[in-house]
Write a structure and sequence with these properties.
Keywords: DNA replication, DNA-directed DNA polymerase, Nucleotidyltransferase, Transferase. The longest helix is centred in the last third of the chain and has 23 residues. This protein has 3 domains: 141 residues, Rossmann fold (3-Layer(aba) Sandwich), CATH 3.40.50; 63 residues, Helicase, Ruva Protein, domain 3; 123 residues, Zinc Finger, Delta Prime, domain 3, CATH 1.20.272.10. It has a 5-stranded parallel sheet, with helices on both faces. Strands 6-7 form a two-stranded parallel sheet. The protein is 57% helix and 9% strand.
Length: 341
């Protein structure tokens, strides 16, 4: 059952006794959480029937006690379990001793007056565990796995359309870039953009550029593009603007080290015949960031990337030891590599 269908059932009052919200797309998990709360927590008195437990801090016994408690002045009790790491193979440094047998016993006969929700922000669970098998047997699964780029684009475009707004293709591309194709960021910024354009219902590229903040990482991305195209003066101008905004040279250099490390990894893997999905398994970065890195890596050969990465690492050492004035060091780097074409 899709998330939309599950929410539709919740909104109509058709509540399951147990839900398993599985996946890492926080925005979708929050949508489901809001739908449940809206349906169950109708008055201030109903707030007494809502409880949330973080499994890094609370024992399962407390959860079971809460789930078995009769609701006060209401029909349902809502009990949320956050970070149920005991459902995975994950090892916690400071782990509580959870008695999962208690939970299994509860799941065999869950309370009719309680809605128990597991918010599991993981890609998968440990299917070998008895508690996972029992949970999957009785729970309604709510799939909130991370959406692929095309799905995010479709979701956001449909949302904009449903709200009666229009957005130009150029504005949309800039918008998803500045929000890193992160659905939670997109929806948060979209509310602001829609409020600003509420008179015309039209969203333009200049509007996005003015309203959606550009992070340091985005500016670094632009700086790398300038270097790729041999636009040293533009790269220098951007660097000086960042200094005026209060950014530190050592921080800019550190982020560039991370970016060129990623570009070098991508370049080596491209040469070895890796596809994006295979790279994703190895590098473990957001798919959109990986896609952007693949595009940038095409502007460099492997030898150049290695040389630039090494220069940045040496700059980091020189800045920290005061061997040379930091602004001069960084500007020399941009001039050296930004004039290579």
């Amino acid at each position: 059952m899709s998330l939309q269908e599950t929410i539709k059932k919740v909104n109509s009052g058709q509540l399951a006794s147990v839900y398993l919200v599985l996946g890492t797309e926080q925005f979708l998990a929050d949508r489901f959480k809001q739908a449940l709360q809206k349906q169950i927590i109708l008055t201030e008195d109903d707030e007494l029937n809502s409880a949330s437990f973080d499994m890094a801090e609370s024992l399962l016994g407390a959860v079971i006690d809460e789930a078995n408690t009769i609701p006060f002045f209401g029909d349902k009790r809502l009990v949320a379990i956050e970070n149920p790491y005991f459902l995975t193979g994950e090892k916690k440094k400071i782990a509580l001793e959870h008695n999962t047998d208690e939970l299994i016993a509860y799941l065999e006969e869950p309370s009719d007056s309680t809605v128990l929700v597991f918010y599991a922000p993981y890609e998968k669970l440990d299917e070998r565990k008895k508690v996972v098998k029992q949970l999957k047997k009785v729970a309604t699964l709510v799939d909130v796995k991370e959406m692929q780029e095309n799905d995010v684009r479709k979701y956001v475009q449909q949302y904009i359309h449903n709200e009666g707004y229009e957005i130009t293709p150029e504005a949309f591309d800039l918008f998803v870039h500045l929000t890193d194709m992160d659905l939670s960021k997109i929806m948060s910024e979209l509310n602001k953009v829609m409020l600003y354009s509420s008179d015309t219902k039209k969203i333009t590229k200049p509007m996005i550029a003015d309203l959606v903040p550009k992070t340091l990482e985005h500016n670094i991305f632009d700086m790398v593009n300038y270097v790729t195209k041999g636009q040293a003066e533009d790269a220098l101008s951007l660097y000086r603007d960042l200094l005026l905004q209060g950014e530190e040279t050592i921080k800019i250099n550190a982020i560039l080290i991370g970016q060129f490390r990623l570009l070098l990894q991508v370049k080596i893997m491209q040469g070895a015949g890796y596809q994006q999905s295979n790279m994703q398994d190895v590098i473990k970065v957001h798919p959109y960031r990986l896609k952007m890195a693949q595009q940038q890596a095409r502007g460099f050969d492997e030898v150049t990337l290695k040389a630039m990465f090494q220069d940045l690492v040496e700059n980091d050492y020189r800045i920290k030891t005061g061997a040379l004035e930091k602004d001069l060091l960084f500007e020399l780097f941009l001039l050296k590599h930004g004039n290579r074409k």
